[in-house]
Specification:
By secondary structure, this protein is an all-alpha fold. It has one domain: Orthogonal Bundle (Arp2/3 complex 21 kDa subunit ARPC3). The chain has six helices and no strands. It is globular. Its main location: membrane. Keywords: Cell membrane, Membrane, Transmembrane, Transmembrane helix, Transport. It comes from Staphylococcus caeli. It is a multi-pass membrane protein.
Amino acid sequence: MTTKHLVYTALMTAIIAVMGFVPAIPLPIMPVPIVLQNIGIFLAAILLGRKYGTLSVIVLLLLVAAGLPLLSGGRGGIGVFAGPSAGFLFMYPVVTYLIGFLRDIYFNKINFVVLLGTTIVIGVVLLDIVGTIIMGVMTNLPISKSIMLSFVFMPGDVVKAVIASLIGNIMLNHSRFKQLLK
């Protein structure tokens, strides 16, 4: 890992952490709130790829486990990994790796459609369904009800995927940014 990649990884970790300062939107029907940090997770994968994007998310989660209140609502500590949002947190590195993997494959022919499709399928559908299933297991909800609850997150997460894909597409297709990534 070069110094440049270390800086990019740390910068993306900081961006995701700053997004945690935006207050979460609590939902009356479930214990997991709507958060803005998903945009940062998507951007980490899109901008840094599978290796460094996933590393930035893992560093963030390690900082949270160490007790720093970097999640929305000022949450932090090892306890959040045993709570209702644990499934989402454990899926963050997986989602980042999968989106980053496809980004790495299509890096030379990257466009908005590829980024958006990948982010919606992996970052919205997979993250929301697996996250709510694990939330259901933690809160003793049936799996069928958990899957139905995942649809509550999807409209907002699609908007987040569009935002991340737009930013990623603009940056990845900018000649100066491409030179920085090399």
